[in-house]
Write a structure and sequence with these properties.
By secondary structure, the chain is of the alpha/beta class. Helix content is about 15%, strand content about 20%. It is built from ten helices and 62 strands.
Length: about 1000
């Protein structure tokens, strides 16, 4: 009988937990009544009034605390008949409301000790108020009749008073803190709460208890729920000799930084229904001990990073009651087949949410996934799965969210997907799906609101093939289709999608105009993206956007004037089209919230409007590759946060305005290919975090400023080519340790190339991650080359077409990852550095039209990456190397006008001495001659010794020793006789035939 009663209460608790977990505030304790006709005790009424007097109440929540009957006051409850106050619930219920500012309804001030006069108070809730960091009053530990105490999120500070350990009748204690609050505690007071069933100290700093917190909690035998998230515990003991927590249903130890394996003692708490260990540093394999927790419904182990192993029948595959499983952001590997096959054998698998994203799971998705028919959320993103989505996915009739993004899968999408009538969210982006999507794939998706199919690569392998009169069964809010063929015509099935707020149909092979009916859907959008199509026509000004809206209509063939769209827009990308005419002069007033503005690669003309000064939130301003004229407006003081400016390839004139130097956040400044002039203003040195400075192909003059090297330490790209700069190259540029592109070509610079150029250690760096540095034209491999996404991989020095003189600095030879070196068309003298062969990454070397002399260093033959070489028009001499890359340099123009050079591909042959010289690098002619004579003498000596030893070693022995001589000649006589006999027999046999 006793066992039956125990089982009944266990089942009752499970039912309570299933409906939202145990919150003991829902229990009445049989102490409070909802009636208001009981008169309260005068002394207790005065106690409440004193409490009110000490509190601040900005919203008047306690305005009802007037009159004689305190039992009818807001938040006050009394015991029937006696009128004693038993419940005081002053929780700020507006704290989590999305519609109001909850802080306006928060009580504050001080808690008056008059509460001690409430001798029968059993329920005290002051949660979610704001007491400004004051300490929890010690006297609360004297309210010995309390059963329920909730001070959570009320901005208390200091230490938890140990006096709370006197509340021996307390069942429920919640002292969890909100973000920004700070409470510390030791736990020596905790064992006194022998009746405690619910404990929440979330966010309380328990760092001092790391070595004993578990044994302390283990002294609370009645505990049903334990919540200690983000307490700084750091230590999760692996052993617990005597587990006294058999009543525990809920354990939350998340976000504590535990650095151990999952402890075995957990598996002795057989009643466990909810276990949360996420956001720690737990490691090791998933223990098989989980299989013993057959009542477990919620298991959260996400974001531990080091949990490994496979999912199998032995660990989690037999937990038929499991409803939520989250193992995301770990290192779980293997395939899913054994795990899902095992769960499929449950009589009624309860699993509703399965999150395995961001792991190392692989292989094909098993067909048994379709047997988990209660699944509502399935998240498998960011794993290396392969193949197709299984046909059985159509069996998951309860599925609401399905995420399979970023797996790199290459396969088909089954038509059975269209049977998921409960599906709301479908995200299968960043894979490379193949085949055709028909109406069957969407036939029953009546609940679908969000659809994302973004292909990994731009080549199109997935085609939408639906009839022109198809009406989808869904009303989407979010549509993201990229690199899927939806065209050639604008998709007519969008006609009924009048709830959209996010539309992205990118690289979909759509051509023609956007039909009028689309603009008349009267959508209010967060994002509009039809980029990378072949759309034509004009763009209306009537498109509506939500605040911070984004528009991408770039890479199309839109024409007409540049449209001015909604004032809510934050990002405006209409680049790479055919818009013409002037930029609207009022664009700053009409779109004042723009942060990103890109209208590059159009045919816009006229001046830059002064109204851009109204773009107070502007971050990036790109108007390059148009036909703009006039001066750069001097308005930059009003838009201080800009970090990208690109006005290149226009016809702008005048000087750089001084206000541009006020942009201390500026990282990218591109003004190349204009008609700008004057000296560079020293004010630009205020832009101290500049990374790309491209002022090439203008008419700037004066010296190259030394402050570039002194005040711009983060510079990655410096291009001043094709200007009118004079003077020396400042040695301060050598201090730019991150610089990997230096282009000073086509100026009038003089003097030597600084030997400190070897300090440009950015030319030696190995780039491990992608970074964007803008777009740039560079001379490489003998031609102009345009770099965009890969600019960060280019290491280049171009000092061509100046008046530089002196030797090539040895420092160049230590720039080990230099890819392009162009010193052509200067007046350099001396020899090519012998150590130039250390530039193993060099692809382009142009030293033409200088006055260099000496031989081509043999070490150059070891630069196997070299594919463009020009040494013409110098004074080089000696043989041309013939090994490695030099075998491919067969164009004579590479070496022309070097009268002393010889060897292929030149018609001039090298003399013997020269050939010998080419085989013995590093030695002069005299030394080579001596070596050749020594070799001949050695040859003759060896010949004489060989003759003496060989001839006399054999013949001398035969002359001196008679027995050897007789045996020797007898051997040859025998051989002769055998040969004659063999020949005679052969001739006789032929005659016989």
């Amino acid at each position: 009988m006793e066992g039956t009663i125990t089982s009944f209460w266990v089942l009752l608790l499970i039912l309570i937990l299933s409906s939202g977990f145990l919150h003991l505030e829902t229990f009445k304790f049989g102490l409070c009544s909802d009636t208001y006709n009981v008169s309260c005790i005068a002394g207790e009424r005065n106690a409440l009034l004193n409490l009110k007097q000490g509190l601040t109440d900005p919203s008047g929540r306690l305005s009802s605390w007037t009159g004689e009957n305190c039992c009818s006051w807001a938040g006050v409850r009394c015991r029937d008949q006696s009128g004693h106050v038993t419940k005081l619930k002053l929780r700020n219920s507006y704290s989590s409301s999305p519609d109001v500012d909850g802080t306006e309804y928060a009580l504050g001030g001080e808690i008056h000790p008059s509460l001690l006069h409430l001798k029968y108070l059993r329920y005290l809730d002051l949660s979610m108020n704001n007491f400004g960091g004051i300490a929890i009053p010690n006297f609360i530990g004297s309210l010995k009749t309390l059963r329920y105490l909730n001070l959570s999120g009320a901005s208390f500070g200091g230490n938890i008073p140990p006096h709370l350990g006197n509340l021996t009748h307390l069942h429920y204690l919640d002292l969890s803190v909100s973000f920004g609050s700070s409470i510390e505690s030791e736990l020596h007071w905790l064992p006194g709460l022998s009746s405690l069933k619910y404990l929440n100290l979330g966010g309380v700093d328990l760092g001092k208890t790391a070595n004993y917190w578990l044994e302390t909690v283990n002294m609370l035998p009645s505990l049903v729920e334990l919540h200690l998230p983000a307490c700084g515990l750091s230590t999760l003991p692996l052993s617990l000799p005597l587990v006294n927590l058999s009543s525990l249903f809920v354990i939350d130890l998340s976000n504590n930084g535990f650095n151990s394996s999952i402890p075995p003692w957990l598996f002795n708490i057989s009643q466990l229904v909810y276990l949360d260990l996420r956001y720690n540093n737990l490691r090791g394999r998933i223990p098989d001990g989980f299989a013993s927790l057959n009542l477990l419904q919620h298991l959260h182990l996400s974001e531990n990073s080091f949990i490994q192993g496979k999912l199998s029948r032995k660990n989690l595959g037999s937990l038929c009651n499991l409803r939520v499983l989250d193992l995301s952001f770990n290192q779980i590997s293997g395939d899913l087949a054994e795990f899902t096959d095992s769960l499929s054998k449950c009589k009624n698998c309860s699993l509703e949410s399965l999150h395995l994203g961001y792991n190392e799971l692989g292989g094909f998705l098993p067909g048994s996934l379709g047997n988990l028919r209660n699944l509502k959320r399935l998240s498998l993103m960011k794993n290396p799965f392969v193949g197709s989505i299984p046909e059985s996915i159509g069996n998951l009739s309860s599925l609401q969210e399905f995420s399979l993004s970023e797996n790199g899968m290459k396969g088909t999408i089954p038509a059975s997907l269209g049977q998921l009538s409960s599906l709301v969210y479908l995200d299968i982006k960043n894979n490379q799906w193949e085949g055709v999507l028909t109406q069957a794939h969407f036939s029953n998706l009546t609940s679908l609101k969000e659809l994302s199919i973004v292909q990994t690569y731009r080549n199109i392998t997935l085609i939408f093939n639906v009839s022109s009169d198809w009406i989808p069964p869904f009303k989407l809010r979010y549509l993201d289709l990229k690199s899927c063929q939806v065209g050639p015509e604008f998709p007519p099935w969008l006609r009924n999608q009048n709830e959209l707020n996010y539309v992205s149909v990118w690289n979909a092979r759509i051509s023609g105009t956007i039909p009028e009916w689309f603009w008349k859907l009267d959508l209010v959008l967060d994002r509009l993206d039809f980029s990378y199509n072949q759309l034509t026509g004009t763009v209306p000004n009537t498109i509506k956007f939500n605040p911070s809206g984004v528009v991408f209509l770039n890479y199309n063939y839109f024409t007409g004037p540049l449209p001015v769209l909604s004032s809510n827009l934050s990002s405006f990308h209409l680049d790479n089209n055919l818009f013409s005419g002037a930029i609207p002069q009022d664009i700053g007033q009409k779109m004042p919230n723009l942060a990103d503005f890109d209208i590059s690669y159009n045919s816009l003309s006229g001046s830059i409007p002064l109204s851009i000064r109204k773009l107070n939130f502007l971050l990036t301003f790109v108007i390059s590759n148009n036909h703009l004229t006039g001066k750069i407006p001097d308005v930059w003081n009003d838009i201080p946060d800009v970090y990208v400016i690109d006005m290149s390839n226009n016809s702008l004139s005048g000087q750089i305005p001084n206000s541009l130097a006020s942009l201390r956040a500026l990282k990218f400044l591109k003004l190349s290919m204009n008609n700008l002039s004057g000296e560079l203003s020293p004010a630009l040195q205020n832009c101290t975090i500049m990374e790309t400075l491209d002022l090439g192909e203008n008419k700037f003059s004066g010296n190259v400023p030394a402050w570039i090297g002194e005040k711009m330490p983060s510079l990655l790209v410096l291009s001043l080519r094709s200007n009118l700069f004079t003077g020396y190259i400042p040695t301060q540029l050598c201090d730019l340790s991150s610089l990997h592109i230096l282009d000073l070509a086509e100026n009038n610079l003089s003097g030597p190339v600084p030997n400190c150029i070897g300090n440009l250690s950015g030319m030696n760096s190995i780039i491990t991650s992608m970074r964007y540095e803008g777009q740039l034209w560079l001379v490489a491999k003998g031609r102009d080359m345009f770099y965009d996404q890969t600019l960060y991989l280019v290491n280049s020095i171009d000092l061509a077409s100046n008046n530089l003189s002196g030797d090539m600095p040895e420092g160049l030879t230590i720039l080990s990852r230099l890819g392009t070196l162009n010193l052509s068309m200067n007046h350099l003298t001396g020899k090519i550095p012998a150590g130039i062969g250390s530039l193993q990454w060099l692809e382009t070397l142009d030293l033409s039209r200088n006055q260099l002399s000496g031989t081509i260093p043999p070490s150059m033959a070891s630069i196997t990456a070299l594919n463009h070489l020009n040494l013409s028009h110098n004074h080089l001499s000696g043989p041309i190397p013939t090994t490695n890359q030099f075998q491919t340099f067969i164009d004579p123009s590479i070496y022309e006008d070097n009268v002393g050079l010889c060897g292929l591909p030149l018609p001039t042959k090298c003399s013997t001495d020269d050939e010998s010289s080419s085989h013995l690098p590093g030695e002069g002619k005299t030394k080579n001659g001596e070596a050749k004579g020594n070799q001949k003498l050695g040859f003759y000596i060896s010949l004489a010794l060989g003759f003496i030893v060989g001839f006399w070693g054999v013949c001398g022995t035969l002359v001196i020793k008679n027995s050897w001589r007789h045996a020797y000649f007898k051997f040859f006589d025998d051989v002769k006789e055998r040969v004659l006999l063999f020949v005679s027999l052969k001739l006789a046999s032929r005659r016989g035939r």
